[in-house]
Amino acid sequence: MLRILTGLLLVLWPFLVWFSLTHPQYRWLLPLMALLFVLRWLGLRHQVGTFAAAGKWLAVAGAGLCAASMLLRDHHLLLWYPVAVNVILLLLFASSLFSAMPLVERLARLREAELPPRAVAYTRRVTQVWCLFFLFNGGVALVTCLQNSLLWWTWWNGLISYLLIGLLMAGEWCVRQRIRASR
Predict the structure, then answer these.
(1) Burial of 128 by CB count in 10 Å (0-12 exposed, 13-18 middle, 19+ buried)?
(2) How many whole angstroms separate alpha carbon 126 and alpha carbon 155?
């Protein structure tokens, strides 16, 4: 249940922030969001692995931004969470390019342990594409923070970036199917 709740928090973050900033009477959501991030971190603290580490850092970033926002009474700080997400994911994917097995290859090997050399090269390329995506998406998220336009921030971080992630995933799936068919 807690996993579902914290997962919803992550997906709904832009809308919760927009709602709490446009309706000051609901600023009580901030301590609740901070608590959910702390609970997420506690739920991940004994887990190991790349994704668990990223999840822990994201939970710390979310809780820290909520706490700083409350303490400093600067709710603009909440807008920086999507930037933190993209930076952490960029670091996660990019650093894996310097290891023996990039992140997308690790994920692919969960479904198919033996990958041909062509598939290994493909997974490296897909990891690079995700790095470019996180760089672009994080850059736009940063611009929306600096513009201080809650409307554009919410549109980008609450809808457009999710649509782009879906398009990238669907596009990659289509390319992968074509490559598999041509074997």
Answers:
(1) middle
(2) 27
Closest CA to 18 of 164, 159, 172: 159
In this model, does residue 137 exceed pLDDT 80? yes
Residue pLDDT, tens place only, 14-68: 888 888 888 888 888 888 889 889 988 998 888 888 888 899 999 999 999 999 9
CA proximity to 172, closest of 139, 123, 131: 123
Residue 78's CB is within 10 A of a number of other CB atoms, namely 25
Higher per-residue confidence, 183 vs 112: 112
Q: Which residue has the tokens 């992140």?
A: 103
When divided into structural domains, the chain yields a total of 1
Query: Could you tell me the residue range of the domain that residue 28 belongs to?
Result: 2-181
Distance of CA 58 to the CA centre of its chain: 8
Per-residue pLDDT, 183: 66
Token pair 């090997």 in the structure block, residue: 109
Radius of gyration of the chain (CA): 18
- pTM for the full model? 0.89
Residue 21 has, within 13 A of its CA and on its CB side, a CA count of: 21
